Amino acid sequence: MQPPPPRALATLLALAATLLPSTGADEKNQRLPCGLARMKCLYRDGCRKALDNYMDGCLDIMNGHAKTCNDFCTKSLIALTSTLPGHALMECDCGEDEFCRTSKLRLAPCRPQVQYANQNGTVVSCEVAQWICGADNLCGTALDYYFRNCRAMFAGKRCSRRCNNSISILQRQERAAKLQTCVCDGDRQARDGCVDIKRNMNQLCFGKPYIDEDREEETNEISGAGGAAARTLSAAVGVQVALVLLAGR
Q1: End-to-end CA distance of the chain, in Å?
Q2: Which of 44, 111, 124, 141 is deepest in the core (most CB within 10 A)?
């Protein structure tokens, strides 16, 4: 699919504005023009990446080629609207641009999931929680250090001082809050890997046991700490698997 012409590109950036409800006429008057809101988002690495994902994942529904919001589009919108500049972009003023106005309506199927995921206290999948954290510069950097410094812990070997410090820093990030309550999703192997690594964190980093009651009921046993954890460090599932660990502290 060919990308939209440059003139239409700026209007695409405002297409999700209806995902977040207005609170009154004063708020409407304070909305930024979409061009300015776009520039503010592009100045932030996390917001820019979320915006790029949004442009790639939501193009079909915005152009009217799809009637439903696909998984990638939904996660992109969740990540984008979780940031301050991204929120401002979603609330930006389309002006008299009819294409922008029409495309906003086409994004209506995305609204419920995006609103739910960004509410305080809601529980999301660990993959969505990672997208939210990654859209924030500080949280995304802390997450990168966590993955870099905790590989031995993921495999059930040890929890180094650097790993423990990385966990502590990550847990202090505002946008990491949902990582502490997120649930494992994906196939059975990915979920089992989450549980194994979560146990490793509790035992190696925090010195306390962890029992997964769901798996105990299904299998009547708990496998060794290192086996499934090491398998899940593949590119396909490794990132998602590790995220649930933050709930262990």
Answers
A1: 45
A2: 124
In this prediction, residue 126 carries a pLDDT of 84
CA atoms within 13 Å, Cβ hemisphere of 95: 10
| 32 part of a folded domain | yes
Residue ranges making up the domain that contains 194 = 126-248
Its sign, for the CA torsion 187, 57, 133, 163, is: positive
DSSP 186: S
Regions of the chain with pLDDT less than 50: 1-29, 210-249
Contact between residue 76 and residue 54 where contact means Cβ atoms under 8 Å apart: yes
DSSP for 54-65, written as a single string: HHHHSHHHHTTS
Residues 189 and 213 in one domain: yes
Q: Which of 78, 96, 117 is the last residue of a domain?
A: 117
Whether the Cβ atoms of residue 4 and residue 12 lie closer than 8 Å to each other: yes
Tokens of 234: 């593949």
What whole-number distance in Å separates Cα of residue 207 and Cα of residue 146? 19
| pLDDT confidence of residue 228 | 34
Residue 135: what pLDDT? 92
Threshold 0.90, pTM exceeds: no
Sign of CA dihedral 131, 13, 19, 40: positive
